[in-house]
Queue: 3 jobs
Job 1
Amino acid sequence: MADASGTLKQFRLSLPATPDDIARLELGSVVFLDGIVYTAREGVYKRILEDGEPLPADLSSISNVNFHCSPAAALDGDGTYRIGGVTATASFRFSKWMSDWLDRTGTRIVIGKGGMASDDYKSVLVPHSAVYLTTVGYGTGALLGRGIKSVRDVFWLDELGIAQAMWLFEVERFGPFIVDSDLEGNSLFAQHGEAVNRRLSALYDGLKPPALHRYGETDDRKKEVM
Amino acid sequence: MIANSTIEEAAYRVMEKAAIDIPEDYLSGIKGMIDLEKGDLSAFVLQSMVENWEAATEDRRPMCADTGLPRYYVKVGNEAAAEKGFVGIERALRCATARATHDVPLRPNRVHPLWRTDNNNNVGINAPEIEWSFEPGADWIDITTVHKGGLFGTDYRMLFPGDGIDGIKRFYLDTLVAFGKRGLACQPAIVGVGLGGSKDTCMQLGKQAACLRTVGDRNPDPKITELELELKALGNDIGMGAMGFIGSSMVVDCHIEVGHTHTGGMPMSVHTFCLSSRRATARIHADGTVAYRTDPQWFTPYLRRETVEWQTPAEPLSNSG
């Protein structure tokens, strides 16, 4: 078995992360977190940024990490929560809210699945001195579950349901995550995508597009769906 | 008579097993890919997944917190008898889903498409889906669940006979490339290809091919076997590994299922099962005992049956009157 973990740089950050900590994160390095992480996705963004509801907690003093995820959780009769694990959801679809959200909350680390478009890193994350971390394999729910020590708070559980509510988790050695964007807005996914693109024309050689085209379809496989 | 409570308990157990225990055929498939993987990030992802599966088994917590869209495949022996019939089975499966969502716990994923309301139990209108099949001469009931996501990595296209095998390869590559970048398809995965049928059966066949056959299993038609192996190699030659990082780990295996289709068309679907490959099966015997396994044994010769015994009448039909 190739021992890849030894070749990748590792960081362990205490939260809220300091600007210096964030500046040290390099593309492709592995990150573990300690402290408080909160979840926010479409339900929360709509409520606060579109419906004008106030933030339920003073996030900037508690946590500067927004995890695009929701937990496999259950509420027991005594009012306590059992968290099995968390898994990220695709972040690109939250682009339209992110700039306002970072303004409002002081968030500096965004975690999710698939990253955001490179342009969004440059126009949204970079001006806020924020970086993006991706979860690993997208399915490391059990490892991430081990890192969640307790639920500090949960907001709008009744209105939004378990999956969309805002959760504040106390975490310890929470990870692994991989750094996808740095403070300059470089994207690891984009770099690897370009390397894949360089081989594509040979792979497609001789394979014609199908007889029926779909509306708006492109034959350029170098374009990404997001 | 198989009691509803027995069915509910078995369905609950397969929900739990699918969420927590990686199928052994898939795990060994992934371990084999790690040995060959040269990309350091892709290899790191695969190693992390193996650690994640170990953690899931040790802690008895789900491998992935995204429950996907859990569904059931139920194969009923033609001689089997269940309390309160098919409606009784269905009710037991819905109850088991709600219970497993709370107890395991699974993330409640199912919401109304427009109102986004969540019952917090993965049960709703038309959810979970239940697909039925039958087996002659058997008195057992097989309950299989698969938890597969539905947002990325699955696509359908109407191809035509003139597009040929090259057209099949082209659409297969199109799908893997489009959704493989950034790992949106959660690869590597077992990839299922549905060929033929009507548009909806084509989608169903492809999903069944991805989720209900084990790594290493081959289609009984030798020419389709050959195409399966060719597509598997093609996918791993894209240069993309886990999460879209540079590498060679895209396809753990490729399975093709076919259905006779319209003479003018060649519909095709591509489905990537995810990196967690969540599936589990329970066989409930007539005496109420239950055996668990990870091979759904869904594609029996009866399910792939080809035609009927029928002869053209010797005498022309009289058309008088």
Job 2
Amino acid sequence: MPAYILRRLIQSALILLGVSFITFVLLYILPADPVRQIAGRSATAETVASIRSQLGLDKPFIVQYGTYLWNLLGGDLGRSYLQKTEVGALLVSRLPATLLLMVAAIFCELAIGLTLGMIAALYRGRPLDNVLMLGSFVSVSAPQFVVALLLLYVFAVKLGWFPIGGYGTFAHLVLPALTLGILGSGWYSRIMRSSMLDVLRADFIRTARAKGLNRTRVILAHALPNAILPIIAMVGIDIGMFMSGIVVVESVFGWPGIGQLAWQAIQRVDIPIIMGVTLVSAFAIVLGNLLADLIAPLIDPRIRLR
Amino acid sequence: MKKLLLSTALAALMAVPAFAQSDEPKLGGNMIVTYKDDVATLDPAIGYDWQNWSMIKSVFDGLMDYEPGTTVLRPGLAESHTLSDDGLTYTFNLRQGVKFHNGRAMTADDVVYSLNRVVNPATQSPGQGFFSMIEGFDAAAAGEADGLSGVTAPDANTVVIKLSRPDATFLHIMALNFSFVVPKEVVEAEGADFGKKPVGTGAFKLTEWSLGQRLTFEKNPDYWISGVPYLDSFTVEVGQEPIVALLRAQNGEVDIPGDGIPPAKFVEVMNDPEQAALVVEGGQLHTGYVTMNVTAAPFDKVEVRRAVNMAINKDRIVQVINGRAVPATQPLPPTMPGYTKDYAGYAYDPEAAKKLLADAGYADGFETELFVMNTDPNPRIAQAIQQDLKAIGIDAAIKSLAQANVIEAGGAGTAPMIWSGGMAWIADFPDPANFYGPILGCGGAVEGGWNWAKYCNEDLDAKAAEADSIVDPAKGDERLKMWSDIYMAVMEDAPWAPVFNEQRFTMKSARLGGDDALFVDPVSIPVNYDYVFIKE
């Protein structure tokens, strides 16, 4: 087990290094010059050159990348070109909001997705099953922006149950978490349905039934724990997929997380922030996958880590 | 029908000012303004966008200032000033008893320090170039000298600024944010974080900045102008989509949606008399234009450029953006001094345009590219221009890119045509000179410069320098006439097709009071925070 974890950690570090390299290359070759943005429209060529040299952007690519990595090792993510603030401080100020939203949204996803998936499996082939599966298809393909605005309009503007955007209380959390939850639940309900169907066909279920256990007991105590296994791996992968949804949902609901920060930075080509957010997201994905792999054997002893 | 409704709404809006002006200013209260993007920095030497521009104006002051809601200069931290006979030496007498927010008295040394700081290359100020008329600029800007030799403080209440050439725009430069006075010891203590913890002499002080959430500004009780500000505080909430901000404003939770009314909601808002009554319309020092790269075929021929000017149906483009602008005839907007009132511009005449193209040897038209920034409504405007050009045989492919990429292509000279919307040009200060140098003069027509047409007419550059050397206020009209002639000559050469001048529409809550001009203040967007008040 320790050897396995060590190997996975080394792998993870290499993945992060790769992500940082690819992002750095892409931003380096981008046809937009950050120095011109800093220097402003009235700048002379000398001013531009002076700022370029102060930021070290006149150095060869490999030197710039090396410097970035070296600073990164010391925990320095650089300073935003346009906001003139430490990228680390910007990320730290926004991470709690994103984590809170992510946890709440995953909870909504699981609650909605697993329940609907289980019901669909139990009613396999009947109209209810078809309706639920159609619903799951709609939810995964619905545009995030539209769903977010729709929920906002109905529940905040028309009904007045929740505040119109913002951050701070539990009431602020409900709509953004629900938006992400509804949008992501489709995947879970589909996986849950097929997983549940497999389990229901398995021999041990037939045995349990034969022993005379009632239907509810069979489903909750025997089928569900076994059907839920593939879902764990999915949650790990889901953290990665979340990032795209979070950018949109955070923007619509005015949720001060890193998705919103990323979106603003991309629009303004603020390279240090884009790098920082990319690395944090990559880290979250790697960590999510690692945790999923480590937790799986605790639930199913048949899985062994090598 | 839509048009009729809109004009009715506008008529309702015109009726508001008399009503609004009858209110007496009241003290107290808090106002909430929202924005989509984070506030970048409140360091006056660095902040350079319209969002932070007006907040910086409330936290700091310069030697000169503007009458609220107008483009008229008035004394600021300098009570008075004199100009030497040769037009080269300004002597500013500072106001007594002005204090920074940290309690320290502001002195002439602070003014000298602040001007030296903005020019110092280590500050990386985007405003550095504005100070080129001050003696010793070249050495200071290159980092070869310890500050500007032309700026001195003979005593604690006097600042003397010597220029290397007479410059009629100098007092405007002293009212620009980049000239605002900062306390040396705080700047040095905070370093690069000064923009997050600003200390100035202004009407408000920043008391809270939650990154990504909100900024709170509180009234400075020791402000040197007695009686203002009226508000106890104002809060800027960031991270809110314009459409959500509008919903909140309609719900009474927000006083001003800072990003304005989203284009998709504009007609709906203006068609509702109740909401339209809360919208203030005003001019803005802005022109939207199409640049044509004069250094490469086919736009190296003046006939082709004039043909493009005649091909564009400006009225229709104004319709495309729901009438939020007026058609433009020339580079200067109508609200700018020096605007040529009796010039009609190139008339919309596709037939004449076709004939001009044939004269230039392009009877069958040609293919080209039109670069445009990819945010609404700019791509829609580009499509309208594309259709108009198609009608005279010009096949323009639209290149819709992020702002930074369009600016890069314009600077590199690789874009044959650019629609300027969303990027340039809103004046930095209300003087005709500000629409020339960087965007039409030879200085801007270099690699990376903002003169995207790469148009360089040395005769006009000489005339521009001559006009700006007229510093005698008595000869102001003569100077404006010279600028008018310069822009008329530019229109002869037609490196641009001016398309429209944007109008401003500020939505405000019913409880906000203050002259309407404050809500469309030409130098404070969206509003002049120091002079608005809560009516209740």
Job 3
Amino acid sequence: MRSWGLETMPRQARLLMAVALGAASGSLLRYLSSLAALALLGSGFAWGTLFVNVAGSFLIGLYSTLTEPDGRIMAGPILRQGVLTGFCGGFTTFSVFSLETFLLLQAHAFGAAALNVAASVLLWLVAVWVGYRIGTRLNRLKGS
Amino acid sequence: MTTFLLSCVLVFLGGAIGGIGRFFVSGLVARRFGETFPWGTLTVNVIGCGAIGILAAVMLDSATQGPSNLPLWAFFVTGGLGSFTTVSSFALQTLALARAGEPLDAVLNIAVSLAACLLAVASGFGAAHALLGA
């Protein structure tokens, strides 16, 4: 990858830029995902937020495992933070999830609120675990 | 179309600021209170949920539940607070606790995060409504 002279920047500045750029693009992708979910599935349930949180949990489990010190992918700490803290962090959101649950409670849709909380937490944790397991498998593969 | 493109730019900018804010605050808390329990992520999530409750009370139309000002909502809420809080780190740290043989801490992290975040949204929303006299 070309670095356009970025290697002359102080290390901390490059780290902040990686986190900022990752978080910005993750947030934009989350916004577009929620618009797509709204167009495809309607506004009855917060599908967009559920999708980004599950996909982001899978990605953080997979990428953090693949880039561990004995992992398959060599990634420097700045790229790693850009993807994990920046992109995955910006792509997923706890605040919008909580607000959507609160608005369901406020509208007396107690079943939908409980379902949103239960399904979300279960799927986030399953997704991060599946990502971790796939990453572990890929790390163990022999050859290339 | 121009509103859509403007919203994209504002979400991008707000997302960058929120992500940097999360990086600093969660790092500060983790260094101060140790990294055996994910205090940093819990802190940013609870703060972000309190703030989103306040902004929802101020900016959401009570009838439609939609934002009154789309660009402001895109910058501060979808971009800023959306990026300031995180589910991915919460999930990864919960898995790490479970893998490290601390299942009780993992369950505690889930329960406390959910309870504190929902309570923070409700408190922020209620406090803003009370102050605005709505």
